[in-house]
Amino acid sequence: MEVLLRKMMSRLGVGSAYVDLRLNKHMLNPGDVIEGQLYIRGGTVEQKIKKLDVDFVCKTMRAGKEEDTVIATIPIAGEFVIEEEETKMLPFRYRLPDEIVPSQQGVSYRFITRLHIEDAVDTLDFDYIQIVPKEKKF
Question: What is the model's pTM?
């Protein structure tokens, strides 16, 4: 009975698996490679993960309205099973575009990590980064 209750709760996101992207730095230049680790932690029951991916998103404010633009979707893993309270670590690496607008008022960047869980609420993680202009060399 208790296992059934835990399964029902995890479908609603309570006691479900979760993901945390931990980046090696948060201030970068255009064209830099950002690296880190994805920590996946199992919940109170075994769950099937359909896929794990990370969106690189630019948020802009225009005329008082927020707009998100997905610059890239980085696939990390396909289907796998995460056991109850199991921890998995996966490497993360992404090269920022060379021609990206630096962070400024009205322009910000973040990574949105999505753990797509079968028959359950997906888990999200948000990590903001700042893109600063490269130093000009003469």
Answer: 0.84
With contact defined as beta carbons under 8 Å apart, do 12 and 121 qualify?
A: yes
Q: What is the DSSP string of 113-133?
A: EEEEETTSPPEEEEEEEEE-P
**Residue 93 belongs to some domain of the structure:** yes
Domain count, the chain: 1
The verdict on residue 4 lying in a domain is: no
**What is the residue-level pLDDT of the chain in tens, covering all 138 positions?**
555 555 555 555 456 888 999 999 999 999 999 999 999 999 888 889 999 999 999 999 988 899 999 999 999 999 999 999 999 999 999 999 999 999 999 999 999 999 998 887 788 899 999 999 887 554
- Look up the domain containing 68 and give its range: 16-131
Domain CATH for 93 = 2.60.40.640
